[in-house]
Recover the amino acids of this structure.
């Protein structure tokens, strides 16, 4: 998992039923100084995250399907939490 | 998932049945400014995408097989949608 | 697997039950000279690792779920051991 | 999947039965200008590819096992096709 | 799979039973000129490889578990062979 920041939204025409009603968010991958690395993922949201939120992203398909309780969703990256505190020493 | 742009087509001699009748597209991986990153994938199309289209790419094998409703396709990257709007803030 | 060093902790609001009571640690990916590479993972701890510890990280979802004895945890990276000795020749 | 070019062969002492009689090929990962990127994979061949051939490589374990019709082969990258035409626009 | 060179050993305190009695080796990822790329993996050995040996590494969890005949090992990278000959053209 990595720390990301929600930086936008995506609207797409997708036929697969698993995406119906799901919000797709652009998430910038942050480094440990909380700066964008240039990498990103288009994520499915599970925690009502909004633009600007610092989030925890799971980037693995089998786990992503499990969070969504969908055995067959064609989904790879999911926002699983909102980061409240990041304590780097 | 990432945002890509279809930049061409591939014709290949493939023995595996799962590819029969499938269109293979070259897709450039875009960054969030919609510029090519230099990375690409050869993707199976599921949404009738054409060259120049901005698409949503799923790059994970188990999910890709699920989109295609094929339990055993040797496929890893699939175009799952056409991007209508990308709102980066 | 790779060698990492625990560099901090993360507190997050996560709805998924699999994270209940789990400690999330920031782990810097080390190179073989034991210097940070700039990459990191947010890992679930299984060995009571603390900040500063040199650890062995498994970064693969199916294996991570197996270490945790959870068939469905949405987890990808897990600290599986404390490194006692690293003998590079 | 990516486009590669077969650049050599590997002979190795491997105990696992799944490799018996399989040809292992060195494959350079090509960019879309068909230049080597510096990355490579050791691939199992399924299409009688030879040195110099431009090939389509599937780099995902579950799919690779399916191409080979082996439920348990410890194999990750497989040459699935010979590229006949690459039309980049 | 990639070509690596065994460059050392790791001793770690690991609770998971799957690691009992397994030797963990540091393996440098080699490029096709047989120079280290700077990347590495901590691998489980299956072929009695020693420091300095040029080896074939499988870096995929499901395949790694299959080589070890363990349905549930939390293992991702495994040395599957000793490279006898690398013929690059």
């Amino acid at each position: 998992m990595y720390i990301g920041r929600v930086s936008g939204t995506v609207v797409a025409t997708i036929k697969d039923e698993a995406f119906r009603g799901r919000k797709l968010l652009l998430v910038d991958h942050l480094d440990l100084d909380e700066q964008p690395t240039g990498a990103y993922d288009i994520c499915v949201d599970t925690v009502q995250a909004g633009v600007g939120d610092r989030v925890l992203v799971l980037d693995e398909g089998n786990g992503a399907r499990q969070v969504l309780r969908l055995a067959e969703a064609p989904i790879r990256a999911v926002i699983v939490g909102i980061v409240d505190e990041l304590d780097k020493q």
User: Anything to note?
Assistant: Chain B has one domain: 2-82. Helices of chain B lie at 61-67.
